[in-house]
Each structure stands twice: as C-alpha cells, then as structure tokens.
Amino acid sequence: LWVGTEDKGLYKIDLSNKIQFLNAAFFGLDELQVRDLFNDENNNTWLSAKDYIIKLHSDLTFQIIDKPELWKSLFIYFKKNNLNPNSDKVFAQSKIKEGFTSFNITSDKEHNIWVSTTWGLFCFDANFNILWYYSSDGGHVAFNTKNQLFYGHMYADLHFIPNKFDAKTVINFSIKNKSVPRDISKIVNDSNKLWYGSITKGLYMSEDTCFNWLNANGCFKENNIKDLIIDSKQNLLVGTNSGKVYITKHIGDSVEILKTYSPNKELYGTSISFIEEVNNTYYVGTNKGINVVRNDSFIKLINQSEGIRDLQFNDCVKDKSGNLI
User: Fold this and answer.
1) Burial level of 190, CB count in 10 A (0-12/13-18/19+)?
2) Could you tell me the pTM of the whole model?
3) Distance from CA of residue 153 to its chain's centroid?
4) Which residue of 87, 100, 319, 325 sits 20 to 30 Å from the alpha carbon of 40, by its own alpha carbon?
C-alpha cells in the first residue's frame, strides 16, 4: 500500500509489512501534503497534493508538475484551442492565488488521468499534456460504465457531462434535490452504479442519472463518511468519522449491513482515514495507526513502533503487486 499523509510525505508498505518512507525531500520539495492517490494501469502512482501533481513510477523515478508548470501547460492548451485565458473567469481568478490544491485523481476508459483542483478539472495524457480543461473548481470526479463524467463539487451542485470532452453537454443536478449527492468525500464505481460518500449527509448511490440518498430511507444512519471501497467480494465498505467501518451489500434501493467494525473491538482509533484490501485482509487507517483486520478479527496495529512517523493519513492505494501506498 502507498499511504499519503497530511504533511510528512508518503509510505510504502509491502506484503511483508516492510515500510519504506518517501518524504518531501525525496521529491525535491520542502513540504508534501498528499490529498489523494491513484494507481494507473501501468502501475504508476499519481499523487494529488497541495501545489503539486506527481507521477511516481514503480522504480521510484517521478515526474512532477508545480504551479509554474501547470500555468505553462494551461497557456499551451488555451493557445492550441484558440482560447483567451483572460476571458475565463475561474482561470483569471486563479492568477492571484498563491498556488493550487488538487483533490482527487481518477482515469477514464482510455486511461487518461483526470485531476480535480482548485484551478479546475484537468485531463492529462501519459506525458502530462493537457487534453481537456474544465474551469469549474474543486470537487470529486468519477466515470460510469458508459465513460460519462460525474463531477461533484464541494458545497455545490453536481455536474454530469455525457460527452466528457464537451462542456456544452453539461447537465446540472442541483443539491436542492435531496437525492443529489453533496459535500462529497469519495466516489467509487461498482459495475453500473456509483457510490458517493458525503461528509455531511452520509451515503448516496446512482445508476445512470437516477440518484438515491440512502440515509433518507433509514438503511444507513451515519452522516460523516471518510472513505468507501468495493472489496473482492463486491461488498461496499464504508468508513466513518465515528471510527466505525460498515461492510454492506446492495439490495434494491437499500443496503444491508453485514458486519460492523467498531473502535476498541476490531479497530484501534476513533476516526477512519482510509480503507484498503489486499489478499482478503483489510487495512484501516485511523488516528492510532493502520489496523490490520482478517476474518473479522484484529491482527495488529502498524504505528510509530514500526516506523510510521505521521498518523494524519489522507489516503491509501494498492499497486499492482499488492503493496500499500
């Protein structure tokens, strides 16, 4: 697993639980605040961070894009597409900002990389060239099985873009409709469904553009969701700010809670940072460390005693070898 932290850098934990630490200095930086991680089809790990987007190769070489590089790429993109950057409201506002924050990273069916930032939504090719730019800042992005784009903004509406490279096709779903996901913390793809975790409203689900707020029908009760994953058994795991992890199964318009992991029972810690699964073993990041849970039983806690210097985790992803990042 690769585990990103708030301000100390990046940890790599292999299947033998050997820990490798990549701090900010490894990348030639003074500070590295990792927000999100994504492992692509070529086993590159992408880091979404404050002021940086980093592509880390499996041999630990890397490419990095900072504010000057992002500006340069944007001007090239605008010039290539005969656009005037001064006419773009969000782009013009960004000129006076100190830097940018990138929120989450994902890919589409063609394996292009999409990064949501405070400067807008970027689509990059493998060489960091901008293929498309959508000047709507912040939020979380995901694709359904039809390769259509869903872009949920923090504290604002959700945008659906049927043709992902054409902003003219945007359909706005207002959060005044209580079924529309809002304040999104995570989106995961589950076959023909998308699951949305919210930090204020709990759990949502959509099929095509039909949205369902599961807290409204009482089948899920917690409001502050920190992470979602689909495990190898196609269960939906929900990690919450209360420190609980729910293993659920989708049934019609509802979810059935199969098992609950609770603080001071299966888990140590009172708030969930991330959930990941490797070889039928769950790794759950909390404010106490990384909990290892197998067959519904606590196995061990990976913390400072094993070399984890920072317990303020933000995200975790596994690479193609099953290592945790």
Assistant:
1) middle
2) 0.91
3) 13
4) 100
The residue to which tokens 């605008």 are assigned: 78
What is d(CA 36, CA 91) in angstroms, rounded to the nearest whole number? 23
Residue 173: other Cβ atoms inside 10 A: 19
Burial class (CB in 10 A: 0-12, 13-18, 19+), 206: buried
User: Which amino acid, 151?
Assistant: Y
Q: Which residue has the tokens 């060239």?
A: 129
Q: What is the DSSP string of 183-230?
A: SEEEEEEETTEEEEEETTTEEEEEETTEEEEGGGGTS-----EEEEEE
- Using the structure block, give the residue that is written with the tokens 């059935």: 256
Characterise 158 by phi-psi region: left (phi > 0), alpha (psi -120 to 50), beta (else): beta
Question: What span, in angstroms and rounded, lies between the C-alpha atoms of 226 and 203?
Answer: 11
Residue 58's Cβ-count burial label (10 Å; 0-12, 13-18, 19+) is middle
The backbone torsions φ and ψ at residue 267, rounded to the nearest 5 degrees and listed phi first, read -130, 150
Compute the average pLDDT of residues 81-86: 76
Per residue in 245-287, pLDDT (tens digit) is 999 999 988 899 999 999 989 999 988 999 999 989 999 999 8
Contact 55, 46 (CB under 8 A): yes
Compute the residue count for the chain.
Answer: 325
